[in-house]
Amino acid sequence: MHEEKVADKNTPYWWEAAPVRPLPSQPLAKRLDVAIVGAGYAGLSAGLVLAREGRSVAAFDAMNPGEGASSRNGGITSGSIRPDYATITRRFGEAKAIAIEAEGKIAREFLYDFIETEGIDCDFQLVGRFMGALGYDQYEKMARGAEALAKRLGIESYAVPHAEQCNYIGTDFYRGGTVRMDIGGLHPAKLHAELLRVALASGLTVHSRTPVISIEKDVSGFRVATSAGTVQARQVLVCTNGYTDGGAPFLRRRLVPVRSRIIVTEELPPELMARLMPKLMMMGENRELGFYYRPSPNGRRILLGGRDSSRGNSDPTAPTLRLRNGLIEIFPELEKVRLSYSWFGNVAMNRDMLPRIFEKDDIVYATGFCGSGVVWAPWVGTRAAYKLMGRAQDAGTAFDFRPPASIPFYSGDPWFLPAIIKGYALQDKIAWWRARR
Asked: FAD dependent oxidoreductase domain: which residues (predicted)?
């Protein structure tokens, strides 16, 4: 008997409304002011700023523009930073921690203003985010954090006790949680398509399926060798992230591509959606391998994402089932619901888990978004463009500092990830046991 498929399609749900396509082939310019490596959110945002300032600029993407994380992510405008405030303070000092936290607010507002000002059609809705607490001790800690965030930055952020949880999410899985109202949801592939449209209209040239092979410094700038030929560029900006390849070897030794998989349910009855997600908020939880989830932009499906420890072209069944089991654990009513989509994409992690602008051998890098690129990639890409133009006042950001540390015995193949993910899973089991004692 033939085994039933776990999900109907293994391509991103987002591609139905905004397919990722190659661009028409264009001749290479002999000389450029700026060559950009990567045409995702960061590369296009930088290219847009530079083109509007009259620079001759081209972006080169090894795939179709947007085919990587820009059209595969969950579309949540979290702008999260993985290390908490205390950890950043311990590693980099309190001034850096305060600046990073404040910049998250600014970066989100920048994105929302860009969407409105440029007329970006990407189904953006500022609905807020609910974060579930696994136990009452975690709830108390999260509640204090929400109160502190509201006091420090004036963000509408508050605790939701267990007794009121059903007003936000139709599950008894959590023991309360927190809400912050400056986070929303959008259609990530539409965001990229619209950003591409605006950037091309502003004069940016984008070469799809044209990987950069090498970048060599010479007396007049850089020789950028691509699969379509060599370009002379006065400046170079590298904006690759989870799909960084051998064309940027310095960066490749510092970024670890980590798979994140998303599943999507079939369309659900309106009364079921109203019960499970009454406010249609974005959702998350505080586990090392926790899930993020949300309603689809039309409010008819549920999307849920999390880590995928598979490698290469391995069978997607096991990681898909793990996410499905997580979905059912949170929402037992969905036990018999069919999955319409399951796909993965790479996010990029570095050793201190912070986004970055840095300079090495006169090449500027904007990268390291650590799973929160919807907010950070456009922001960091734009700051990098101002840095290239020497506009220090506009380029100011707390993320412009030393390169991330390299990873010993690593040059692009994350052979160690399955073991790390197993370690995180063990930590989650221990935390779960403690929370439920």
From this structure: 33-386
